Amino acid sequence: MRLGGIELGGTKMVCAISNENGEVLDRYTIPTTTPEETLPKLLDYFKDKNIDSLGIGSFGPVDLNKNSDTYGYITTTPKPGWANTDVVGYFKQLNVPIGFDTDVNVACLGEVTYGAGKDIDSVIYGTIGTGIGFGVYLDGRLVHGLMHTETGHMLLSKHEKDKDFVGPCPFHDNCFESLASGPSIEKRYGTKAENLYDRDDVWQLEAYYIGQALCNCVMCYSPKKIILGGGVMHNEKLFEFVRKETLKDINGYIKKDEILNHIDEYIVSPKLGDNAGILGACELGRLELAK
Amino acid sequence: MRLGGIELGGTKMVCAISNENGEVLDRYTIPTTTPEETLPKLLDYFKDKNIDSLGIGSFGPVDLNKNSDTYGYITTTPKPGWANTDVVGYFKQLNVPIGFDTDVNVACLGEVTYGAGKDIDSVIYGTIGTGIGFGVYLDGRLVHGLMHTETGHMLLSKHEKDKDFVGPCPFHDNCFESLASGPSIEKRYGTKAENLYDRDDVWQLEAYYIGQALCNCVMCYSPKKIILGGGVMHNEKLFEFVRKETLKDINGYIKKDEILNHIDEYIVSPKLGDNAGILGACELGRLELAK
Questions:
Q1: Interval B138-189: pLDDT, tens
Q2: Is residue B75 part of a domain?
Q3: Can you tell me the distance from the alpha carbon of B69 to that of B77, in angstroms, rounded to the nearest whole number?
Q4: How confident is the model over B194-247, as pLDDT tens digits?
Q5: Between A145, A152, A249, which is nearest B138 by CB?
Q6: Are residues A171 and A256 in the same domain?
């Protein structure tokens, strides 16, 4: 099979063709400018590629409700030019089944299909970088609900030493993204996260927030595995701190062997690296074809 | 149809027979003592009732994983005598299909089938009383995952005025249940919630915590409706405070008409009152029969 996939990102767009074994056969990347300029280039790429299906993972917010008039749209994004963009409608010209979901749900699906979440029916995939978002796959399906989850905006309790910090999220002073994203670290310390790798106090505070958020994710989602990617998680030492903080916050309340005795296998890195999103997008298209 | 249902509660057990229109045809209640004493009485009740199916909602933690050796058990509860009790196995003697889930998931299913969540595919049902628990029904199905959700134990940010309060949860000083359950109110003020109805400051603080938790639920679950029951919610004024706090915490980030402009219909009371759990249990059995 030739499965088409698109990742619509805030800074770049990635297109690819994969087969059903998770092998990327071809790939094409362009910078994200306006919809008028970007979308036709993506369409052109696929025109002679003879794809069987197309899956699209997009930055949000997006409308995932198939009964809605604006299903398949990017809706209220502040990104100039992209609000109310009919993405799925545009690609209907390709005459193949189209799947559409958030960028993080699609990356989660990639890891569940081919990566660190393979053969596990309840997995959450968080990306902690410029923004914070979670893909949520429970009992064998991606979760949608009213819109889609916005786990990165759950409110957290500030650390005593961090009380006066004003985070970068314009909506929430103390949401997860405001306290622990890349821009949050940069705002707090005046330099980028990668320049702070030798400062344990920086990563202890970071783990304090991520651990709290993961504790809440364990309580709210009851996942079988938590996969954490994104630029901030590139610091391998952070994983150790995060596992410790998460256990400290759960504090023995969830008496499951997977958490109490195997935290190293419970909170893990992605296995597909940069391919999680695009392979998940291809799989999303395949699922749509299979319906 | 004659649908059997059981609610296993910490203080009482309720059995009932309903039809598929949500009418309770018969009901039987006994106090909860030991499994050896209580379970045979429940079994006896159903023996001559000619039921088509049985649904059971139980206090937890419970094992809901059908591939597990202890599926259908109450597992690690501190309740004396009840740890490692094989509930589903015991009722197999009735030779009918048996559904099994948490008490809150079952109450959520009741409200989704016949009550305030009727015809809505993504609903969360929270009970705020002696404990705090949420049933979670997303995209047309109850959520399970590794175990089941424990939303009442998500960690919250303490109010400035409440910083020195030590909540009653033995695991978490600042979880939702520790800060906002009935026992929490009683510990904070030295008297039961129902004696404090004229004290607005009590209910403002209560709403501060519930609003924070609901904001996090909106971020994590993206529900189409939030139903709140339990003893603490019997104070009708609290609903107004909670709606206001939830909107304040979301702070316009989720741009959905259902939340921004219809919060009165978004955060609501249960419609089935005390029947939510038992009717949900009956429906759970019916779903098992229909499989």
A1: 999 999 999 999 999 999 999 999 999 999 999 999 999 999 999 999 999 9
A2: yes
A3: 18
A4: 999 999 999 999 999 999 999 999 999 999 999 999 999 999 899 999 999 999
A5: A145
A6: yes
Q: Which of B101, B124, B146 is the last residue of a domain?
A: B101
The residue of chain A with its CA nearest to that of B76 is A255
Q: Are residues B219 and B248 in the same domain?
A: yes
- Helices A200-221, A182-189: axis angle to 10 degrees equals 150
Task: Read off the pLDDT of residues B273-282 as tens digits, 9 standing for 90 and up.
Answer: 889 999 999 9
Contacts of B143 in chain A (CB under 8 A): 138-139, 221-222
Give the model's pLDDT for residue B289: 97
Contacts of A155 in chain B (CB under 8 A): 156-157, 212, 215-216, 249
CA distance B223 to chain A (A): 5
Among the three residues B101, B132, B149, which one is the final residue of a domain in this structure? B101
Of the partner residues B219, B221, B224, the one whose CB lies closest to the CB of residue A153:
B219
Within-domain flag for B289: no
Q: The tokens of B130 are what? A: 């002696």
What are A278's two structure tokens? 């695009």
Neighbours of B67 (CB within 10 A): 5
Buried b (16+ CB within 10 A) or exposed e, A251-287: eebbebeebeeebeebbbebbbeebbbbbbbbbbbbb
> Can you read off the two tokens belonging to residue A245?
């903080």
CATH number of the domain that B209 lies in? 3.30.420.40
Sequence-ordered list of residues with C-beta below 8 angstroms from that of A187, at least 6 positions apart, any chain = A165, A167, A168
Question: CB of A94 within 8 A of CB of A86?
Answer: no
A282 is a domain residue: no
CA distance A28 to chain B (A): 33
Q: How far is B197 from chain A (nearest CA, A)?
A: 28
In the numeric block, which tokens belong to residue A218?
């364990």
Verify whether the Cβ–Cβ distance B154 to A216 is below 8 Å: yes
Position B281 in a domain: no
Asked if residue B78 and residue B167 are part of one domain, the reply reads: no
Q: Could you tell me if residue B69 is left (phi over 0), alpha (psi between -120 and 50 degrees) or otherwise beta?
A: alpha
CB contact under 8 A, B147 and A252: no
Interchain proximity B150–A75, CB inside 8 Å: no
DSSP calls for A165-219: ---S-SS-TTBHHHHHSHHHHHHHHSS-GGGGTT-HHHHHHHHHHHHHHHHHHHH
Angstroms from B152 CA to nearest CA on chain A: 8
- How do residues A51-82 score in pLDDT, each as one tens digit? 999 999 999 899 999 999 999 999 998 889 99
Same domain, B121 and B72: no
Q: Which of B145, B155, B171 comes nearest A138 by C-beta?
A: B145
Q: Which domain holds residue B240?
A: 116-268
Note if the bond before A270 is cis, omega within 30 degrees: no
Say whether both A142 and A240 belong to one domain. yes
ipTM for the whole predicted complex goes beyond 0.95: yes
Tokens describing residue B140 = 């047309």
